[in-house]
Amino acid sequence: MKPCVKCLLQEYDEEKYRQLIAKEVEWMDAEMKVSDEEYARRLDICRECEKLSAGTCLKCGCFVELRAAAKEGHCPGKKW
Q: Where do the structural domains in the chain lie, given as residue ranges?
């Protein structure tokens, strides 16, 4: 199940939303994911970014945890 792009965050159960994002990352094929260390490094950079809002990048609209997990993912602000 993917997040509904037509729903508002206030309509989401926060815990179920967190679980959904975590499962999406978990279900990614291993060869498509970065190492745990690289994932943590990317998320640390995102945490400090002024464009982060409720797990979403305001520059591109992605879910940062999904983008950060992907080998082919990149920061639209060129921070990683």
A: 36-80
